[in-house]
Design a protein that fits this description.
heterodimer, A: 399 residues, alpha/beta, nine-stranded mixed sheet, B: 405 residues, 19 helices
């Protein structure tokens, strides 16, 4: 980093995967050694063989990566080096004046792919039944170690460090007043940004309630008890992937890089709601909203082609280290305006009371009736409407 | 159960035979491995340099005929028990009055871990022992492991396997025998002791895997003793439950199953990431050429190759799922106490070094307790001579003329 000018430069980015890589992927899928069938008739032993068989068949024979490659390349993509790591991002400016800049962060096992269908509704609202005054300029970065961002080569890239890189990115793009949004790992990053309160950040919205991961929440009401029970079930029955990546990302990383179906199974085994939705998309041809076979495989194929299974898993290890270091200490307060949407299929249905307890300045809370953990991916129109409503009060002239 | 009892209970000789295509395919896959980048911290799991050294040795220098040769040099059999074909090694001692002993391996093990104890146990005079210390040895493959068939229905928890082992010993004509196990084998052996089938005289463990309520009470007994030693061991003991491999296999064995059946290095990494002591020892075997005792490169790869060629990574992982259900059930309905004589050896590299009073609390009739100075989680594999001498000492009181006859 001797020449500052070069380091802060923003370069256009274009994806072009060599055909040999596609051939190798198809060869590996065809050569897969599959285990025997699970001994149960549901998800209770993990990703079911019938789902993986159908996914493998579709992946090797019908799936076309070039479609999503063209879709990504049709969007303005860039890279720029921040804090020593090359960051990839999509940057779509609205044609409307006074559009509000928004930086949206994906999670695991996601990527910028999960956010693609929100680009239209957010940047061009009038074409999607919205108002020009709800327009956003949209920045969708790939988290370090994910997709086309470089992977960290040193320790320390936990959510709090990414939360410092994103304001630098927004600054480089010339934005002086902007908002931030995230779910899953993206929610942790966005929550951390809010606590850092960098200059220019005027509010945040998340669709995963981060404070519940760090400590116990009150269970005084029926809604609170229901949410606490959902968290307890998740911890008791669906926690293996989390614990393995938080403690041994390298160990699981070997198979994620070497076996396409190992990668697919590991990525599908996230939460009960999204698993069954995705499973139905493959086995019964009945996707839920936008969680179609092609969209699911776009994301899995992106992980495969970029070889980022291990580096993405390491972000959980970093979070685990950060959690261990900060054990017993309350995080810095978050005083910025905060919006939250509860989607019904999320791992736990966050009640308003929890949100208000954890964030003193709640400007928006809503419970919607469709969508799950991958809300932006599954229900992009509804998700976009939530973002528009959540940030309305922060636009020029209204706050 | 089979309708023709005679066929079902038949004990048939067994020979291992791998096809050349299977081995060629394995070699090809190792060579075609797509590697991940280097870990950023040694605590992130199996290290890249170590796994690459293993893959290099596996593909280029390892003799793929080894597993076949080593196993086929021993009398092996299969027999159907409770609907499942069970594979076992059965070596009778030449010495009269040898004591029959059934030894159960664990995960990520197989009968491979036990091969080097067969000589010292069955032929003690050739191994610095006395003829009076001889054992007849039975070493079965757990259901879903190695050459035993894999269960096709849920319910093969340690208690069900324990019932099958008693049936196996009965079929072999043994009316007075002892049992031994570590790791998952300790779970099966513990269940055998609780069931106390006719003929079982006593058991030995090298891992404390008592029924959860008793183990918890034993461990919490430190509140009475409250020594630094107790607290240190309690910390190591509870650390087991924060391990990803255990949680993942206990919850979703099928999901990790796709990894370990399709990728040889994925399988190797998953198997080597067991406990810190054995990992460091195996790592030194590959990186520095300085193995610890029997944990040599060839022995370690014999075991991994066996898992690969039998394609049993997933079915082996399912035992943790069964175990986790069994533990939950046992918390509600406690199994019977163990009244049989129990012997225990503490190996210094084991995940936790069970203090004597924990073992005594879990098993009231403790006839033998010893702390040795070598060996870890894979005690029989790493220190076969020492392990065998522990068996001799532990079971001496139970032999003919001993205290129980």
């Amino acid at each position: 980093m001797s020449t500052v000018e070069t380091a802060t430069e923003i370069r256009p980015f274009h994806i072009e995967i060599p055909e040999e890589q596609m051939d190798d992927l198809r060869r590996r899928i065809a050569a897969t050694r599959l285990p025997t069938k699970e001994l149960v008739e549901d998800r209770s032993q993990g990703v079911q063989l019938a789902t993986i068989r159908e996914l493998a068949r579709y992946w090797a024979t019908d799936y076309d990566w070039r479609k999503v490659e063209a879709k990504l390349n049709a969007l303005p993509q860039f890279t720029t080096e921040i804090d020593g790591v090359e960051i990839h991002f999509i940057h779509v400016r609205s044609t409307y004046e006074n559009a509000l800049p928004l930086i949206m962060t994906h999670g695991w096992p996601g990527s910028v792919i999960e956010l693609l269908e929100t680009v239209g509704p957010l940047t061009d609202p009038t074409a999607h039944g919205g108002e020009a005054e709800d327009a956003f300029d949209l920045v969708l970065p790939s988290v370090p170690g994910y997709g086309f961002s470089a992977e960290p080569t040193e320790l320390g890239w936990w959510a709090g460090r990414v939360a410092q890189a994103w304001p630098e990115l927004m600054r480089r793009l010339g934005y002086t007043r902007y908002v931030a949004q995230g779910g899953d790992v993206g929610a942790a990053i966005t929550d951390a940004m809010g606590r850092l309160a960098p200059e220019g950040l005027i509010g945040v919205h998340t669709n995963l309630f981060v404070p519940a991961l760090g400590g116990t929440m009150p269970t005084d009401t029926e809604q609170e008890r229901a949410a606490a029970e959902q968290i307890a079930v998740f911890r008791a029955t669906g926690f293996g992937y989390f614990l393995e990546m938080a403690t041994r990302p390298q160990t699981i990383g070997y198979a994620l890089l070497d076996s396409p179906l190992a990668l697919a199974a590991w990525m599908l085994d996230h939460d009960t709601d999204s698993y069954y939705k995705i499973s139905r998309a493959f086995v019964d041809g009945q996707p839920s909203g936008n969680l179609t076979r092609d969209h699911i495989l776009d994301n899995v194929t992106l992980y495969w082609l970029t070889g980022t299974g291990a580096s993405a898993a390491r972000s959980y290890w970093e979070s685990g280290q950060a959690t261990a270091k900060s054990a017993g200490q309350a995080p810095p307060p978050m005083n910025l305006p905060f919006g939250f949407t509860t989607f019904p299929g999320e791992i736990w249905k966050t009640p308003r009371s929890w949100v208000e307890k954890a964030y003193p300045n709640v400007i928006y809370f809503n419970e919607v009736d469709e969508g799950g953990h991958f809300a932006a991916w599954e229900e992009p129109e509804l998700f976009s409407a939530e973002i528009q409503a959540a940030f309305k009060s922060l636009r020029n002239g209204s706050s | 159960m089979s309708t023709t009892v005679e066929t079902a209970t038949e004990v048939r000789p067994f020979q291992v035979e791998f096809r050349k295509e299977q081995i060629d395919d394995l070699r090809r896959r190792i060579a075609a491995t797509r590697w991940t980048s280097n870990e950023l911290d040694e605590s992130q799991g199996v290290q890249l340099a170590m796994l690459q050294a293993l893959a290099r040795y596996w593909a280029n220098d390892y003799d793929f005929g080894r597993v076949e040769e080593r196993l086929n040099a021993l009398p092996q059999f299969t027999t159907e028990i409770d609907g499942l074909e069970i594979h076992f090694i059965h070596v009778k001692s030449d010495h009269e009055n040898a004591l029959p002993l059934i030894i159960t391996h664990g995960w990520p093990g197989s009968v491979i871990e036990m091969l080097e104890v067969i000589g010292p146990l069955t032929d003690p005079t050739a191994h610095r022992g006395d003829a009076a210390d001889a054992f007849d040895v039975v070493i079965p493959s757990l259901p879903g492991y190695g050459f035993s068939a894999e269960p096709t229905e849920v319910g093969w928890d340690p208690a069900r396997t324990a019932e099958a082992w008693a049936e196996l010993m009965d079929r072999l004509g043994y009316t007075r025998y002892v049992a031994q196990g570590g790791d998952q084998g300790a779970g099966v052996t513990d269940a055998m002791a609780r069931q106390a089938p006719d003929g079982l005289l006593g058991v030995h463990f090298n891992f404390l895997d008592a029924a959860p309520r008793e183990l918890l009470m034993a461990a919490l007994n430190f509140r009475l003793a409250f020594s630094d030693e107790d607290r240190a061991q309690f910390g190591k003991f509870t650390g087991i439950f924060m391990r990803g491999y255990l949680t993942e296999m206990g919850e979703h064995p099928q999901t990790i199953g796709y990894s370990i059946v399709d990728s040889p290095v994925g399988l190797a990494a998953w198997m080597l990431d067991h406990d810190a002591d054995s990992y460091e020892k195996i790592s030194r075997a590959f990186l520095d050429g300085t193995p610890s005792g029997g944990l040599t490169r060839d022995h370690v790869l014999d075991n991994i190759t066996l898992y690969w060629l039998t394609g049993t990574g997933t079915s082996a992982a399912r035992l943790y799922w069964e175990n986790s259900r069994a533990v939950t059930a046992a918390l509600k309905h406690a199994p019977p106490h163990v009244s049989l004589p129990v012997a225990f050896t503490v190996f210094p590299g084991e995940i936790f070094q069970a203090p004597r009073h924990w073992v005594k609390k879990a098993y009231h009739d403790l006839i033998y307790f010893n702390e040795v100075d070598k060996g870890g989680h894979f005690a029989a594999w790493e220190e076969p001579e020492l392990f065998a001498s522990e068996m001799r000492a532990a079971f001496k009181p139970l032999r003919d003329g001993g205290r129980s006859s």
